């Protein structure tokens, strides 16, 4: 059964949002973080790399489905999520929503 992608929930109960790393160690690497981390209010400091988060689902699916090629399954899942991210960005652009 195909699962609908749901972003992770922060330690405080809010949905984490996707950011792009700007560091030299992890350039352009995507990660989930607390949605209001740029505000000066205290935040829950939630952090998870997108690829590691996706891999955790693939491992669960491999165990449940008995998939013989877990790497291929993970690559397919990452491609799926990247496609959904492009769709979200396109929807935001078309609706005039500004990203934070």
UniProtKB/TrEMBL annotation:
Species per Swiss-Prot/TrEMBL record: Arachis hypogaea (Peanut)
Lineage summary: Eukaryota, Viridiplantae, Streptophyta, Embryophyta, Tracheophyta
Protein name as annotated: Zinc finger GRF-type domain-containing protein
């Amino acid at each position: 059964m195909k699962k609908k992608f749901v972003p992770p929930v922060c330690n405080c109960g809010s949905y984490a949002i996707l950011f792009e790393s700007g560091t030299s160690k992890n350039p352009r690497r995507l990660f989930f973080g607390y949605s209001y981390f740029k505000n000066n209010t205290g935040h829950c400091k939630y952090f998870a790399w997108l690829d590691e988060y996706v891999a955790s689902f693939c491992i669960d699916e491999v165990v449940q489905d008995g998939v013989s090629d877990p790497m291929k399954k993970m690559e397919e899942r990452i491609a799926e999520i990247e496609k959904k991210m492009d769709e979200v960005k396109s929807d935001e652009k078309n609706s005039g929503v500004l990203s934070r």
